[in-house]
Amino acid sequence: MPTLLELQTKRNTLVTQGRAIHDLATKEKREMSADEVVNFDKYMDESDAVKTEIDKIVKDQARGKRLAEATAELEQRAGRQTESEDPDPNAEKTGVVKFPKRTRRGLCANLSTREIRLDLGKKMNSPETRAAFRGFLSSGAQAAELRNLQVDLDTAGGFLVTPQQYAAELIAIVDDLVFIRQRATVMTLTNATTLGVPTRDVDIADSDWTSELTTGNEDTALGFGKRELQPHPLAKRIRVSNKLLRAGALDAESIVRDRLAYKFGITQEKAFLLGNGAGQPLGVMTPTTNGSGISTARDIVTGSATNFTADGLINAKYFLKPQYWPTATWAFHRFAVQRIRQLKDTNGQYLWAPSGIGQASLAQGVPDTILELPFFVSEYMPSTFTTGLYVGVLGDFSFYWIVDALTMQLQRLVELYAVSNQTGYIARAEIDGAPVLEEPFVRLITS
């Protein structure tokens, strides 16, 4: 089996061969011959196939690294039952949970530190409550533990308040799962129930050239509005094997948190993209007419009722002001990227080449781009290509704001899944999100 280096070298050779054919025809100011077209397509198709192998090896290596890290962690935990090692052991003393948050600047992905502050004055954040919560997850709480967990909550339905550190750690995992969260402006509410976002509804005119003793024309057009971001309840039910919960090397807290993070992440991804804003986040792909979100004034047609055109993509990029380009990202469904990748000119040559609509980069850590801007692929982006439907978006997602509430409830279900030797958990979190300015976004819609 070829190594990663060998595959990268092979792809580099194939792209170089394809470029040589293309550059020769360009230099001689002629179209490529039939044989040249065949060879060019052959080299580029082989390059795509090699890239698929490269991506597979990179993912396999990432999984291997993840497994090795998990194995090392489990070895440290060996012999322990319900006692869990905190990802940030100092949080209970400092009141701050720290974790990496992915950000993007231009084409480079970096890591920065995000912090969530805890209210140490609340009983739910005490070491005793955290220990009781771990016992509750793994085997159910005893009377003394229940008294610690029943904090300012009607427990008739069996719901208990989780420690804020647990909620913060779950949010940290979801940050890595949902691509919009990695680029959005994310805030956490510990006390307030809503967050007001000031918006510029009407702008003033440009300044005036004037003399030394005058101040220019008075302008009274400037107007501000305010959008309210109010975390909405989000619930999810999961099941965990009782045998897994009893495993000595694993702690129930991490198992439940990781499963919930994945399930919450999927739901959030859908809402941040397609949510209608009624009892849920307002998505970037949802057109609005009430002054909030992104209106249809930010729509650009693709140039085709059933596909993209190169002109449509170019129009979308240049509809966005240049100051947003350094942090702008395309978002598409994989079927949409496939269609863009298959765009050809009148001679049947692919436009997605080093000198065309896209740029396929072989540099490690630098992703492929579309018109020099990176792109993300989500299964929850629209993928139906018929007249008048949205098929993509380009924008600076730092102007999408997300608000998390650290208040989280968890219910443990024992009898419901007893026949299958499983324990169920129902979690309720509170989240909201919305674009706070429409100018940094452009949506693509079929003609």
Count of discrete structural domains: 2
* Largest sheet entry: 7 strands, mixed
CATH topology of the largest domain: phage-related protein like fold
Write the H/E string, N to C. Answer: HHHEEHHEHHEEEEHHEHEHEEEEEEE
Unreliable runs: 78-86, 102-112, 142-158, 361-366
β-strand percent reads 15-25%
Shape, principal axes of CA atoms: globular
Give the helix level as a range of percent: 25-40%
Distance between the termini: 46 Å
| Helix segment tally | 11
Could you give the order of strands across the largest sheet? 8-16-13-9-12-11-10
Quaternary structure state of the chains depicted: single chain
The value of Rg in angstroms is 26 Å
What does this molecule look like?
This protein has helices at residues 4-27, 34-77, 91-94, 127-139, 143-149, 164-177, 179-183, 242-246, 252-274, 310-319, 334-341; strands spanning 96-105, 108-117, 159-161, 185-189, 195-202, 223-229, 232-241, 299-301, 329-332, 358-359, 369-370, 373-377, 390-395, 400-413, 422-435, 441-445. It has 447 residues and is of the alpha+beta class. The chain folds into 2 domains: 4-77; 85-198 and 223-447, phage-related protein like fold (Alpha-Beta Complex), CATH 3.90.1690. The strands form 4 sheets. Strands 8-16-13-9-12-11-10 form a 7-stranded mixed sheet. Strands 3, 4, 7, 14 and 15 form a 5-stranded mixed sheet that branches. A two-stranded antiparallel sheet has the order 1-2. β14 (400-413) and β15 form a beta hairpin. The radius of gyration is 26 Å and the shape is globular. 31% of the residues are buried.
